[in-house]
Amino acid sequence: MIKDLAAREILDSRGNPTVEVSVFTQLGEFVSSVASGASTGIHEAKEIRDGGERYGGKGVLTAVKNVNEKIAPLLIGKEENPEEADKIMIDADGTNDKSNLGANAMLGVSMSVFKAAAAKENLPLFRYLSSYFSFKENIPVPCFNVINGGAHGAGGTAFQEFMIVPQKESFSENLRFATDFYQHLKNTILRKEEYPASFANVGDEGGFVPEIQSAEEVLSLLLSVDRCPVIIDVAASEFFKENAYIYGGIRRSKEEMISLYRKLSGEFSLLGLEDPLEENDFSGWHELKEKMSGLLIIGDDLLTTNIQRMEKAKENDSCNAMIIKINQIGTVSEAIRAAKKAKEFGWRTVVSHRSGETNDDFIADLAVGTGSEYIKAGAPARGERVAKYNRLLKIEKQINSKT
Ligand code: PGA
Ligand code: ZN
Description:
Layout lengths: L3 E8 L5 E9 L2 E6 L27 H15 L6 H12 L9 H18 L4 H8 L8 E8 L12 E4 L6 H21 L23 H11 L4 E4 L6 E2 L2 E4 L2 E3 L1 H14 L2 E5 L7 H10 L4 E4 L7 H9 L5 E4 L1 H4 L2 H14 L2 E5 L9 H8 L4 E3 L6 H18 L3
Parallel strand pairs: 4-14, 6-10, 10-11, 11-12, 12-13, 13-14
Antiparallel strand pairs: 1-2, 2-3, 4-5, 5-6, 7-8, 8-9
């Protein structure tokens, strides 16, 4: 039973405030904290920020108050049943975008109730998720963001993320490959005479932030380190202005962007493209998907982990893979339903962190427990990123030893 529930304001990896929630049951305290994006999709559930002077308007004391004064009285005394708790919050919020109670308030509670429920069943979280929601467990292939641009970098390429996706036999081997790659990449950048040392600084997700404008040059740099398939998160909505994509200082049409992607895919080993076009162009995405068969075409801002948006994308045949971000929709059970729907649609799922993270490793269990094919949690560096990868190392051991 939920005996008590309390929220507080803590800091995320960017030094911005975020919500942390504790749920107390007979078995103890279950703590969760909420991540936050920089390149958020316009259709995402809304987090509540205080505004005003404090923390540059980014405080979350209103969301904290909503947990303590509005959500806690509804859940204290109830069983730790996460679907029911999420439904109670969704009904109490009463909006489509969670703007009343705040997605950041609701999600912190949702995550903690899930953790408490797993503990009650004496199961690790990933096993609780797979058994209660009938997924086949899978240890995901990790996508490591080694070059940060766009909203996460500082004046480099307009494309937001260049992720290497190693293809080794196991998660731990993939992680080891990625750490070697990451260190070699750093040394390669530092050794290049034409690059200043600042090119080896890191961005929000732990990848390097070289001021390189061209995606081609970034891909060549990666290839000079080692051969490894790459997924690019273009995050195209971020540079879509007045009906054109502003890339490399030039206004480009959708057709020009598609030919650029085809060229890159012809020259380099591209495994997928995330948000290659802006977030409302469902038919443009279809055109791109048709022309780039064999690639993962991954909807993030396009879908925002939202079943209505997914259905629209399915009707238009806009993508074949999707990002699952729990804070885009605001409760864990809705994100799980989205992952279920994706399986029904025959899409791959990529469980994802946000650029503003905490050390909470919930998404590692979520990825395994929903049988997701991929996880993206940033570079193989920085505490809030490796928290997820380290948790996966432990889960891999547990699954392999069948405990
Ligand atoms: P965000 O970036 O968390 O800043 O939105 C991550 C992504 O776009 O995948
Ligand atoms: Zn994205």
